[in-house]
Amino acid sequence: MAGQMKAGKAFEYAILREFEGKLEKLTTVKVIDNSPLILAKECFHGFDTQKQGRYLLTASFAVNFLIDIEPRLSNDIDETDILELEILPDSQGEIGDVRDVLAIRAVQKWEIGVSAKNNHKAVKHSRLSPDIDFGKKWLGVNCSSNYFSKVNPIFAKLKDMQKKSDGMRTWSSIDAKSLIVYTPILNAFKDELQRLYDADKERISRQLIEYLVGSKDFYKVIKRKNSVEIQAYNLRGTLNLPFDDIQPKFITPQCSLPTEILDISFKENSETTLIVKLNNNWKLSFRIHNASSLIEPSLKFDINLLKAPSSLFTNTLSVPKEA
User: Fold this and answer.
1) DSSP, residue by residue, 8-29
2) In 3-state terms, the chain is what percent helix, strand and coil (to 5)?
3) Do 30 and 152 reside in the same domain of the chain?
4) Residue range 259-296, pLDDT digits in tens
């Protein structure tokens, strides 16, 4: 497992542990024992005790704040109202659910989720390949045969290079790979996204953000060296709810989803990055790259959120420096 992924899993486990430790004193808590929990625990214990302590300290600051703004975490209706804590499998991200740690109260028909990030802000790492229909997967509408007629010959050439070299040829051996691979693939993607948008503008605009940013409301918790950043993606108004007459200590306003794509164009002086601008102050970058040093008929997007509505709640908490 890559170091960044291992660190992310360890941070998920630290957040779950802090939720459990702080909330079991206030309400009945049950941790769901599943394979994602086992993996996250293994990753956490793969670090030395000093690193573990750092993860827990950072998670503690974030969890204290979340308890303040989510009264339902610590308040139950009666003894049957159990708070369940669960780490979700990565496969949920394939359907747009980016949450890693989930807190659920079935009796209240309520849940909140946390997306735990270790020092990065990327929203998605989606792939393109001859077998992936990004329109269907992301937006619920099939890509056209015209799109596949443009990208499939390029992927076929890559597959042929891979086969002829017994899988040993590297991307660095391809001259002008932007010209013959990245740029034409991006142009095909750009044209197809525009076509899909033109057919159903408001729905595609909204669906693009819901798939890439999150199909469920959530808190993004980003661990930094000496701080932790908490963002509230309250796109549907399901976060920050009161419990009876107990109000959250801070308000996280609802954000507006986009209704229009304003522009899709290449980033200035770049052959590998598209910028997608939407209304309501949403802006995304799509950088395409090879996911492996060895040639394969598959490419990966590094998708980042460049802008979000000013109503997106963000709070940064300072964490004491390491001794």
Assistant:
1) HHHHHHHHHHHHHHHHTTTS-E
2) 40, 25, 35
3) no
4) 999 999 999 999 999 999 999 999 999 999 998 899 99
Amino acid at 86: E
pLDDT value at residue 117: 86
The CA distance from 296 to 155, in Å, is: 8
Q: How far, in Å, CA of 256 to CA of 281, rounded?
A: 9
What pLDDT, on a 0 to 100 scale, did the predictor assign at position 121?
63
Residues 225 and 264 occupy one common structural domain: no
Domain match, 110 and 153 both:
no
Section 46-52 average pLDDT: 95
Q: Which residue has the tokens 């939720």?
A: 19
The residues with which 1 forms a beta bridge, in sequence order, are: none
Average pLDDT over residues 34-49: 96
DSSP code at position 110: E
The number of folded domains in the chain is 2
Statement to judge: residues 8 and 82 lie in one domain = yes
Residues 173, 34: one domain? no
Angle among Cα 306, 54, 315 to the nearest 5 degrees reads: 35
Distance CA 158, CA 293 (A): 13
Domain that holds residue 185: 124-209+257-307
Widest CA span of the chain, in angstroms? 69
> How far is Cα 89 from Cα 18, in angstroms, rounded to an integer?
20
Q: Is residue 323 part of a domain?
A: no
